[in-house]
Structure formats: C-alpha cells, structure tokens
Design the sequence.
C-alpha cells in the first residue's frame, strides 16, 4: 500500500522557554504538528495519510466524512482529496451558517461538496451520501469521525517515534483528546504513563473511545477539567491559555483543542500531577482556522 507523504517529516520540535517559565516547568518543548504541510496543517494529516492509502488501495474515487461545522478534520479531508484527485463530500452537523467562516471557507475553496445534516445524525446522512455516490457510478470511501481508527492511529505511533529521535528522555507528552486517534497512537508509541490526554468534550466517554481504538491495559492520564460548558464553548482558562502562548512564544493556539490542551497542562502542573522537573512536550495539533469562526472569541479575548 503506498502512503501519500502530504508534507515534510519530521515536524519541528521547538523549545518554549518563556512558556515553560510561565506554566512552572523547567523544560517545555512544542511538537509543531500544526506544520504538517497539507491544507494549513494539523494532526489530521498524519491520520489521513493512512486513511487515504486505504481508500486508494480500495479503488475509491470519492471520500465521505463527517464533522462539526468547524471541523479541522473535514478541512484536511477536503485538502487531501484535492491533492489526490478524489472527490470529497463533507457531512457537517446542523444547518448552514449565514456566512462561511474559518474552516468552512477552506472546505469550499478546496472544492468539497458540503451536506448539512440539520437535526439528523451525521452518520446516517453520511451512509445516505455513500449510497448516492455509488448510484452515480463512483466508489465511496467513508472516513470515520475525526479520522480516528485503529489503522490511522499508526500516524501518531510514527509521531511518537519522531519525538524519541528528536529528544531523549521525554517524561510527558500533553495532547488534546477528541476523537482519540492521536492520543491512542502516542500511547502505542510512548507507553500510557508518559501521555496526558486533555479531554475537549468531543466524545461522551474518552476512556471507551481509547479502548475502541486499541488502547489495552494501562490508560494515559486524562485531564477532564477543561470541557467547561461544552465542546463549542470558550471557558476563561482557555482564553487565558490562548493569550499566554501568543504572548510568551508568538504561538497561536485554537479555542477548541490546543487552547484546552495548554489549559489542561497548566492545571496538571498547578496541582502536581506533572512535576516541575519533568521534561514535557506539548503537541500543537493545529486548528487555527477555527479561531476565526468562534462565536465567543471577540468578547472573551478582550484584554
Ligand atoms: C481533531 C483535533 C484534535 C484531537 O485529535 P483526535 O485524534 O481527534 O483526538 C486536536 N487538535 C486539533 C486541532 C484537532 O483538529
């Protein structure tokens, strides 16, 4: 099976000295998986490499996937389809907004066909779209929610191997946990004891999600204090985290995933779950376009 490259690997691992001092760590590094090349970058690119290899091996001509209106995964699936010459249908939750913003602008630029699920379940609408593609004589390939499967988690096993080669003696790797493939792959590569997943509220039960993705035995630490009022909302800790990364390192995080991940890292250091002396890596998983569509971002981010 030939696996599309989609980018330049390994992604950089950068020291973040000011941010380390601000959060209370002796040593903090940022794994720049926001710089994964394709389509504005982000963690979904590593998973999509493996999913697209499966799609091509199956003779697919049309990718179908699901997500929230501001799904980074949907945006990167649109970009991957464009790169590979495959048609793309994105089934997005809810109704079309009055104006396309953020990721939605990029989905449309890349030529994806967008189907709004309204009040129906996206999975049901996606199954209908697969049938429709087949009726048109094309070959659909359904990419699972968030691009997470046992197979695609391999993309983060590879990221773990990159990290081990870039920096010896890593104690902790902190990452946002959504559909779970990213954390599951890191656990496979680094062992559960070194991984901290910050729940963003994308799935009802992150433990069941990790189990379904092949995490057996010991679980990683899961920080659950950052969901706040829900996946699409912006709590004060997350707004603070966005400001802190921007003002200490010139590093822009997103309000849904990486902002929560940094807020979670701060919470873990504050209560001692991560000790000051632990050599810590923060995985920047991308997501910046979502910042420009977040309904709460303007009032919350006033200084
Ligand atoms: C999807 C996403 C995550 C979470 O990754 P999962 O593999 O779904 O858990 C983290 N950060 C960003 C920016 C994402 O888009």
Sequence:
């Amino acid at each position: 099976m030939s696996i599309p490259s989609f980018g330049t690997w390994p992604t950089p691992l950068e020291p973040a000295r000011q941010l380390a001092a601000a959060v209370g760590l002796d040593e903090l590094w940022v794994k720049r998986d926001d710089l994964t090349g394709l389509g504005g970058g982000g963690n979904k690119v590593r998973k999509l490499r493996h999913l697209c290899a499966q799609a091509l091996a199956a003779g697919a001509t049309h990718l179908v996937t699901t997500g929230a209106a501001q799904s980074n995964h949907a945006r990167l699936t649109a970009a991957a389809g464009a790169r590979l010459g495959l048609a793309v249908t994105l089934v997005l939750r809810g109704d079309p907004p009055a104006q396309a913003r953020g990721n939605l602008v990029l989905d449309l630029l890349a030529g994806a066909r967008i189907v709004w699920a309204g009040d129906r379940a996206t999975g049901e609408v996606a199954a209908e779209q697969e049938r429709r593609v087949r009726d048109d004589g094309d070959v659909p390939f359904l990419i699972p929610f968030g691009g997470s499967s046992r197979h695609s988690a391999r993309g983060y096993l590879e990221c773990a191997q990159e990290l081990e080669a870039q920096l010896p003696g890593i104690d902790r790797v902190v990452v946002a946990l959504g559909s779970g493939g990213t954390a599951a792959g890191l656990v496979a590569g680094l062992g559960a004891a070194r991984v901290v997943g910050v729940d963003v509220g994308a799935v009802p039960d992150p433990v069941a999600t990790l189990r379904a993705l092949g995490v057996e035995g010991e679980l990683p630490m899961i920080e659950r204090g950052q969901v706040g009022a829900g996946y699409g909302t912006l709590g004060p800790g997350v707004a603070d985290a966005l400001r802190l990364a921007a003002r200490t390192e010139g590093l822009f995080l997103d309000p849904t995933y990486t902002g929560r991940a940094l807020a979670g890292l701060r919470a873990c250091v504050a209560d001692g779950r991560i000790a000051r002396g632990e050599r810590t890596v923060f995985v920047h998983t991308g997501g910046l376009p979502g910042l420009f569509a977040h309904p709460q971002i303007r009032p919350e981010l006033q200084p």
Summary: Strands lie at 13-15, 28-32, 62-67, 87-92, 113-116, 140-142, 172-177, 195-199, 221-223, 280-284. Residues 44-57 form the longest helix (14 residues). The chain has two domains: 13-42+149-301, 44-147.
